[in-house]
Amino acid sequence: MSPPARSSRPGRPAVRRPSGAPERASESGGRVPGLGDAPAFTLTRPPHLRLPVLIAVPHAGRAYPEGVTARMREPAHAQLRLEDRHADRLGIAVARETGAGLLIAHAPRALLDLNRAEDDVDWDMIDGGRPEGLAAAEPGQRGNARARSGLGLVPRRLPGSGEIWRGRLVQAELDARIEHIHRAYHAMLAAELARIRDEWGAALLVDLHSMPPLRAAEGQARAPVVVLGDRFGASCHNALMGRALAHLEARGVPAAQNRPYSGGYVLDRHGAPQSGVHAVQIEVCRATYLDRQLAEPGAGLPAVAAMLAGLVRELGAEAAMLGGQHGLRQAAE
User: Fold this and answer.
1) 232 in helix, strand or coil?
2) Integer Cα distance of 39 and 42 in angstroms
3) Average model confidence (pLDDT) across the chain
4) Candidate from 99-108, 125-134, 143-152, 258-267 with smallest mean pLDDT
5) What one-character DSSP code corresponds to residue 65?
6) Is residue 298 part of a domain?
7) Who's near 308: CB < 8 A, 6+ residues apart?
8) 54, 205 in Cβ contact below 8 A?
9) 189 in Cβ contact with 103 (< 8 Å)
10) What is the CATH number of the domain that holds 269?
């Protein structure tokens, strides 16, 4: 048996390419400030997409510069709480099984949250505060709402745990993170979705996340282990959500729609169903694929990856139909 492939880049899991599977093309981009030339993200795709789907994993990055962890009050605790721990392993398995594209962020959420807008900044944590001349968010605007809760563009504090950082972040470092992580990532994401749409007539972004275990709501026999978000119908065609929920229900997978997670900035920015680009957020319960400490891969990971692969195939087939006959023929091949 050949040994698993290894990576010299920080934050990337070692993965094995299935025997006989075609080699996937790989393109890295951005940069993690403080880690030399370490890329902020990597896009992979097979020689021929079997579905008009791009899976993105924005919150599983583990490429931490030493200077960043040194400023954390409790590094291990903060990393565990902020990361979608090992959701990238799920993404890799699902992409290889379904033939979808895959975009994985290596830059950790502690540096910068890719599911927040650029202006969603808590300026009290920035040395010097809000720059002069920077326009304030308009009343009623969603911008800065997450920052006020402590989970803005750069997370400041965790619910029940308090402040994450010692000291303030300098403006130049924030600017570097925005330029080399946030803007670069979203530019590549937009370009790849446009490429898929041009080829298939439609494109679907599956924004993959993990969530803490939920409690069953009143009247529910079991708590949801999957939450599907579509910004309450704004980020994708309703046929996609209907097919996804029916697929999960038929397989006995407890699922919910938009509550408590409807999606965030990624879906707001990239979901444009009127233009043929659809976006769905999938939240998976960490207890289903991690160990009891919710820290390392558990025995359930292969089964959860297989469940997600089936779901992505259903979504991809629906997206292909939305794209027209050309996409349908490719999906059937």
Assistant:
1) coil
2) 7
3) 90
4) 143-152
5) -
6) yes
7) 90, 94, 208, 282, 284
8) yes
9) yes
10) 3.40.630.40
3-state secondary structure of 44: strand
Helix (H, G, I), strand (E, B) or coil at 182: helix
pTM: 0.89
- Side chain identity at residue 70, one-letter code: A
List 105's β-bridge partners, or say none.
Answer: 41
Cα distances from 193 to residues 94, 204, 274, 295, in angstroms, run: 18, 7, 14, 32
Beta-sheet pairing, 41-45 with 101-105 = antiparallel
Q: What is the share, in percent, of the chain residues with pLDDT greater than 70?
A: 86
Q: What is the pLDDT of residues 22-72, one digit of tens each?
A: 689 999 999 999 999 999 999 999 999 999 999 999 999 999 999 999 999
Q: How far apart are CA 268 and CA 121, in angstroms?
A: 18
Contacts of 261 (CB under 8 A, 6+ apart): 209, 211, 227, 229, 281, 283
Q: Would you say residue 320 lies in a domain?
A: yes
Two tokens at 160? Answer: 């029940």
In a domain, 282, yes or no: yes
Q: What residues contact 160, with CB distance under 8 A and at least 6 apart? A: none
Could you tell me if residue 71 is inside a domain? yes
Domain count across the chain: 1
Residue 58's domain comprises 25-133+140-214+232-253+264-332
242 near 318, Cβ under 8 Å? no
Tell me the C-alpha to C-alpha distance, in Å, between residue 284 and each of 155, 210, 230: 21, 5, 15
The structure tokens 């997670």 sit at 261
